[in-house]
Amino acid sequence: MNRHTPLTFILILLITLLSGCATPPTISGNTQTNAEPALVPKTLAIKVATTKAKKSGLGVPQYENGQLIGYQFQRSFAIPAQIGNFFGFSYATNQVLAINNTDKAATGEIVKQVPVIVTVTHPEIVTNGQASTQSTWQDTLYFGRDNFAMWNFESNNELVSGKWTIEVKHQDTVVATKNFFVQVPPPMPAKVTTVCQVESEKFPKSLQASNQKCCAENNAQACYNFAWRGLERVKDTHGAALYYAKSCELGDISGCRLAAKLASNEQIRNDFYHKGCDLKDMDSCIEVNRLPQ
């Protein structure tokens, strides 16, 4: 019979306990640990308020110390499509902030500027054989000041008449937009150097008729009308003076007055006023200090 002393039993117990601790415990895949999850960066959405154009039309660039600071706008029904002309609009807007979390698309982060896309939709323009009806470029919108969305006619292929739309967009928001009517000006007639020798076909038909009556029928009112509504409108001052002179010679008092105002020297001026005075025009008589005969 084998006899085991108390010391033997103690050694066997220690060996059993140590062997049980040699294998690490396994953790089920579903077991949750106390480790903190990784932080996911949150992108804040910047929202821009929509607005209307402040000023618009044909724009004249304004410079200060050689730097472009803005445009002076001239309102007109049609924008003349001419090389060097600018047209467009100014606008100012604000950032939409999340106040009381009512606007989920806004943010509490304040910024000074945001990128925008300017899109110009226009009649078909052909460049290097490629036709397009839209032109786009990137720009920057600054909060708290005027911004400008402008088109500059730089080449002859851009000179097309029709509806043009300029739109400023930030992400999915159309910030501001404006429609314009662009018109290619008709060809300018040559300056008149001799009365009744004029490129009348470059004038509207009603003025062509006035020129015909003036030169073929010696109609004084028609001569005056062609000078006033035609030649003065195309800034042909010398040509207008010639037609006013002809209308004066044919007996039109108004023609005498305007011919005098456009006269190149005092002697010619007085001659027209004397002619007007002879036609019983008191204003003309006063100018030359005489009474009608």
Low-confidence stretches: 1-5, 7-15, 20-35
Rg, rounded, reads 42 Å
Question: Would you count the extended β strands for me?
Answer: 11
Question: Which range does the strand content fall in?
Answer: 25-35%
How confident overall, as mean pLDDT? Answer: 87
Instruction: State the helix count.
Output: 7
Which sequence of strands runs across the widest sheet?
Answer: 4-11-10-7-8
DSSP helix fraction: 25-40%
Main beta sheet strand tally, sense and closure: 5 strands, mixed
H-E string:
HEEEEEEEEEEEHHHHHH
Classification by helices and strands: alpha+beta
Question: What is the distance, rounded to the nearest whole angstrom, between the alpha carbons of the first and last residues?
Answer: 173 Å
The general outline is: elongated
Organism: Pseudoalteromonas aurantia
Signal peptide: 1-22
Protein name: DUF3859 domain-containing protein
Keywords: Signal
What is the secondary structure topology, with strand pairs?
Elements: H1 6-20, E1 47-48, E2 56-64, E3 67-74, E4 79-80, E5 86-91, E6 95-96, E7 113-127, E8 130-142, E9 147-152, E10 162-170, E11 173-183, H2 205-217, H3 220-231, H4 237-249, H5 253-261, H6 266-278, H7 282-287
Parallel strand pairs: 4-11
Antiparallel strand pairs: 1-6, 2-3, 2-5, 5-9, 7-8, 7-10, 10-11
Helix pairs in contact: 2-3, 3-4, 4-5, 5-6
Report on this model:
Strand 10 and strand 11 (173-183) form a beta hairpin. The chain has 293 residues and is an alpha+beta fold. The model is unreliable at 1-5, 7-15 and 20-35 (pLDDT under 50). The chain has helices at residues 6-20, 205-217, 220-231, 237-249, 253-261, 266-278, 282-287, and strands at residues 47-48, 56-64, 67-74, 79-80, 86-91, 95-96, 113-127, 130-142, 147-152, 162-170, 173-183. Helix content is 28%, strand content 28%. It is elongated and about 90 Å long. The strands form 3 sheets. A 5-stranded mixed beta sheet has the order 4-11-10-7-8, with no helix packed on it. Strands 3-2-5-9 form a 4-stranded antiparallel beta sheet, with no helix packed on it. Keywords: Signal.
